[in-house]
Every structure is written in structure tokens, then in C-alpha cells.
Specification:
By secondary structure, the chain is of the alpha+beta class. The chain has 4 helices and 8 strands, in the order ββααββββββαα. The longest helix has 20 residues.
Length: 165
């Protein structure tokens, strides 16, 4: 798997990172890896709270980003839209689309509302996250068994992010 990533400035002057990759798994497995809190904790984030449309949950990502995430749309197994830090000056939106391609699944992620003058670290972060997703889908196990926290990223994720930044 090789992720394709691009950055651009949106019509609002804020930055956008768009990344996509194709995974050797069916769309239902891929969807569960992106929406089930138990599966999310194996590769990208711990999530607390009731994860359903309209609710706000708290997430701690392997990058150490921590904050409120509102679930705006969830159309299984094809589309997810969340707002990060809703109502704050740091508010961003992350949208994901899944497309079945035979027995494989294409994932497209777009992260919008970012600081337009510093998109490279965001792009590298998503590349590291999607690499972790690929590893989780291959093995089914936790990619970062030693964990992470709001003050310390997962070690392997951080090393990969530094290499890609």
C-alpha cells in the first residue's frame, strides 16, 4: 500500500490535507476499523463517550492530539464526517469516504480547516496514521502496544512522522 497525499488551501483560506490508499480488506472490515472504538484504539485513537451521530466524544490520538470530536455524519459503510474541537478557534473537520474495489477498499480522508502555512506536518501525520491502519488490518492487533497519551505520542508513530515531515 502506498498512500497518495496532497495539500491545498481551501476557499476559506484554511489548509486541507487529502490522502488516500487502497487496503486488502473488504469495505465492512475497513469501516469497523474506522468507527468501532475498540478497533480505533488498535491503530489511531482511544475514544471515550457514546459514538453516535450528534454526540461529542473525547479522543486521544497516537500523535498525542487530544480533544473533543463531534460525529456529524455516519453513513455505514461509506461516509464519516466529524468536527474536531467544535466551536473553538481550532475547529477542523475530518471527512472519510470508503469505496469498495472488488475485495479491496479505497479510503479517502480529507482534513479541513488547518493552518495553511504549515501543512507538511499534518500530511505526514495522516501518512503515519494510514500506515498504522494498514498494519492493523494486516495483523488485527494493536500497532502501538506500549500506548500513547495526550502528552506523549506513540513512539513508532512519532518516528515515522519525523521521517515524513
Amino acid at each position: 500500500m502506498t498512500a497518495t497525499a496532497m495539500t491545498r488551501t481551501g476557499p476559506d483560506g484554511r489548509g486541507v490535507v487529502r490522502i488516500e490508499d487502497v487496503y486488502d480488506t473488504d469495505i465492512q472490515d475497513r469501516w469497523e476499523a474506522c468507527t468501532d472504538p475498540g478497533r480505533l484504539a488498535r491503530w489511531i485513537a482511544t475514544v471515550s463517550g457514546e459514538a453516535r451521530v450528534g454526540n461529542t466524544v473525547h479522543a486521544v490520538f497516537t500523535s498525542s492530539w487530544s480533544g473533543a470530536v463531534r460525529i456529524d455524519e455516519c453513513e455505514a459503510p461509506h461516509h464519516l464526517l466529524v468536527t474536531n474541537e467544535p466551536g473553538s478557534p481550532e475547529e477542523t473537520q475530518t471527512e472519510a469516504w470508503l469505496v469498495a474495489e472488488g475485495g479491496r477498499t479505497r479510503l479517502i480522508v480529507e482534513d479541513r480547516g488547518l493552518a495553511a502555512d504549515n501543512l507538511s506536518p499534518y500530511r505526514a501525520g495522516w501518512q503515519a496514521h494510514l500506515a498504522d491502519l494498514g498494519e492493523h488490518l494486516r495483523t488485527g492487533s494493536a500497532v502501538h502496544p506500549s500506548g500513547w497519551s495526550p502528552t506523549a505520542p506513540a513512539g513508532a508513530w512519532h518516528r515515522r512522522w519525523v521521517e515524513m515531515s
